[in-house]
Amino acid sequence: MGICRSYRSTAKFQRAGSALEMGFLVTTLIFLVVGVIASLLTRICFNQGPSTNLLHLTLIITATVCCWMMWAIVYMAQMKPLIVPILNDTAE
Amino acid sequence: MEYIDNLPSMDLMRSEKMMLAQLIFPVESAHRAVSYLGQLGLLQFRDLNDEKSPYQRTFVSQVKRCAEMSRKLRFFKDQIHKAGLMPSSSPALQPDIDLEGLEVRLADHEHELIEMNANGEKLQQSYNELLEFKMILQKAGDFLVTNGSHKGVQETELDEHKYTNNDHSDTVSLLEQAEMQPGPSYQSGVKFISGIVCKSKCLSFERMLFRATRGNMLFNQSPAKDQILDPSSNEMVEKTIFTVFFSGEQARKKILKICETFGANCYPVPEDTIKRMQITKEVASRLSELETTLQAGLRHRDMALTSIGSQLTKWMNMVKREKAIYDTLNMLNFDVTKKCLVGEGWCPISAKTMIQEALQRATFDSSSQVGAIFHVMDSIESPPTYFRTNHFTSAYQEIVDAYGIAKYQEANPAVYTIVTFPFLFAVMFGDWGHGICLLLGALLLIAREKRLGSQKLGSFMEMLFGGRYVVLLMSLFSIYCGLVYNEFFSVPFHIFGSSAYKCRDATCNDSRSVGLIKYGSTYPFGVDPSWRGSRSELPFLNSLKMKMSILFGVTQMNLGIALSYFNARFFGNSLDIKYQFVPQMIFLNCLFGYLSLLIIIKWCTGSQADLYHVMIYMFLSPFEDLGENKLFWGQGTLQVILLLSAVIAVPWMLFPKPFILKRLHNERFQGQSYGILGVSEMSNDEEPDSARRPHIEDFNFSEVFVHQMIHSIEFVLGAVSNTASYLRLWALSLAHSELSTVFYEKVLLLAWVYDNLAVRLVGLAIFAFATAFILLMMETLSAFLHALRLHWVEFQNKFYSGDGYKFRPFSFSALADDDD
Fold it and tell me: Do residues B812 and B321 lie in contact, with contact meaning Cβ atoms separated by under 8 Å?
């Protein structure tokens, strides 16, 4: 009995865990892909020599990392919230 | 590690490599060579005649001539401006005039203009007087008709006298005529003086006359119809025409003096009506003559000014360039043989071929026998810093330079500032509605780039136009952050799917007491829209934004320290790496990096640990049991290890470096303390080359130690204060969100409740104004300023020394920007 319960709880944990982490991982992958595509596009359209290309790459990597961090922070803060929305008395 | 060394250099990261060059020109080609170098704009001359005053330099007379010519040109520009003409640009390239010819022409034009102006003034003055006389004649006629019965025969003689005076003395001003009247000296009979005075002074004038004549006078006045140009003050004033009736010679003298004091102009008006009408006709005809003369004069002057104006910009540019060339030539030294000029200058190494080619062209064009010599010199002095920027990056480079110019070849924070500055701005400004407004503004400025670039803008518009690409990036990141915060003029949207929260049961009874629950997966992008308007919105958002600020702060500070590592590696300073970079990294990350880790773990596990408690008790009682504040296994041990590492890091960054520096200095200069006498004898024979003179520094140990101590204390205390400083990201973002909410709810929604269209329109207008001025302008400036401060202080003090000087080449295009 105990083994079944623990098996079910671990399964739930795995499902819940995977549900939580899947969204995070998928979107992180999307950010990565967007960053790679952006750098490739910049290399194709604005090819101006190796030093300038490196500068463009740095800029795109910095921008991608900043945007990803912003999204990830807000996402992680909402994954397991400690407080929930309590509606106002005069509801909108 | 070699991989890092083998990477190609990045464009904006470090200053271009500069070299000190020595140039030797033969005298005949010097002027032309400097002119070509000015067109190229890649060489910064060093002033070799620093000690000499401006009057001791070689080419001082030419400089004076150029200054005199530019004074004349400014005079022309002034005159053109006063005449209200538009200076037009010259249509085609006219053949080059040389400097002496230009000088002569300018002198001629000036003489001509001054003469025309003087004549014009004189004519204008007579015109004004005649105009006043005409008005007086009209008005005074009315006064005299009423008083005509008092006239005697003697006065008609007086009038004829006046009248004949008018005919014969044309060149004398009418004002003087009125005073020159030799009045017949009889005591009886009423005489009068008529004139015109400023309306503002009329009352006190009348009172003064009354007192002076003891009341024995009659004062008639009536205002003039039109305003008159007062010849002395050159303004249009309102005047009053008056006639004073008095008796006695003494009274007349007094009245004339009073008229002079008050600036009232007196004119001789004949009493006889017929004579008056004759004089009026004469005056009218003279007026029209004068008018035509004046018009002709003005036309002539305008033509002259237009012909000057079309060439004015070209001449001004030429004179500016010549002055600049002579200023530069003044910086050069004459060679011993007096046949060559020797100069020194900094230039980028990449520009060497271009400079040599310009020098060759100058030799060829001036048909000189000897070519100019250009060779590289060594120098001890630090070269100027030169970054090659384009339209886009120059604004960011200026932002960084405003704090301090980078030392030669140290890492340039502008590379990262291009992205992080607009990003931190957006964190504080996040609202995609406002972001779209900013984007439209930025696109407008960029679309009108060419037109606005050639215009002369006010200082505020110029700053805004100069930073148009910064504003563009700021707006794009604002739109992104607005989507993450889920605020569109403070209204949340369900763009990315449905909310993750719902009522606990179907009746939604406890939604106002206990709240909703999270039933599904997290809202995929940004803040869940259910939070807006709830009672627990602020606690949630505050917690989120504070932790976000700490995370961003720790990341940016780590980036700063990493850049200091790359600097130390580039300059080969392994001492800095071992005894500054490593302990700094350890200290910052053991404390605040650990805090960031705790934040992330708390979010991921949903634990209820109190992070304040954890951090504070890590210091106060590190060996106590954590209890409910335990976030992961092994936390207690890890905390002790981190605390010990941080404590060791402080003396690690404080003590070793000064002692090792002292040892290195002793090793390097050990043998030289005996050779000082020999060195000083030899230095007298060498050429005084300022940049090449080596000097032995003495090593002041206490100074170095105190410097290191200050640096370490600054870092240790700064670690806490700078991390807290990043909380302004939270504060401004909260302020923006609250302001936006207030305007939306208390202005727009309030006005929308009423069904009346007028009320709704007024509400919409107030909302638009409040948004535009308070949120879009004031908040933008505020967030800009705080993002700037975060970069200048918290980011740059980890690695930036900023004590270099900027490369200012001798360039004609820079001249054009400077003087305007």
Answer: yes
Chain A positions in Cβ-Cβ contact with residue B500 (cut-off 8 Å): 78
Instruction: Measure the CA–CA gap between A64 and B537, rounded to whole angstroms.
Output: 29
pTM of the model: 0.80
Residue A77: its chain B contacts at CB < 8 A? Answer: 543-544, 547-548, 603
- Mind giving me the DSSP string for B268-316? ---SSHHHHHHHHHHHHHHHHHHHHHHHHHHHHHHHHHHHHHHHHHHHH
Flag if A87 and B512 touch (Cβ within 8 Å): yes
| Residues shown for chain B | 820
Structure tokens at B431: 């609202």
Please classify residue B727 by burial: count the beta carbons closer than 10 Å to its beta carbon, then call 0-12 exposed, 13-18 middle and 19+ buried.
middle
- Average per-residue pLDDT for chain B: 84
| 3 state DSSP class of B348 | strand
- Closest-approach residue (CA) in chain A for B427: A70
Query: Percentages helix, strand, coil for chain B, rounded to the nearest 5?
Result: 65, 10, 25
Q: How far is CA B705 from CA B254, B631, B662, B709, B756, in A?
A: 88, 42, 10, 6, 76
Kindly report the nearest CA distance between residue A10 and chain B, in angstroms: 16
* Residue B243 neighbours by CB distance under 10 Å: 22
Buried b (16+ CB within 10 A) or exposed e, A33-72: eebeebbeeeeeeeeeeeebbbbbebbbebbbbbbbbbbb
Q: How many angstroms separate the CA atoms of B618 and B642, rounded? A: 9
Interface residue A89 vs chain B (CB under 8 A): yes
Please tell me the least confidently modeled range out of B159-163, B249-253, B697-701. Answer: B159-163
Bridge-based pairing of strands B44-45 and B501-502 is: unpaired
Span B79-90, average pLDDT: 73
Q: Give the B window 547-576 contacts with A, CB below 8 Å.
A: 547-548, 551-552, 555
Full 3-state SS string of chain A: CHHHHHHHHHHHHHHHHHHHHHHHHHHHHHHHHHHHHHHHHHHHHCCCCHHHHHHHHHHHHHHHHHHHHHHHHHHHHHHCCCCCCCCCCCCC
pLDDT of B167 > 50? The answer is no
Phi, psi of B607 (to 5 degrees): -70, 160
- Here the tokens at position B661 are 């520096």
Q: Is the model more confident about B457 or about B429?
A: B429
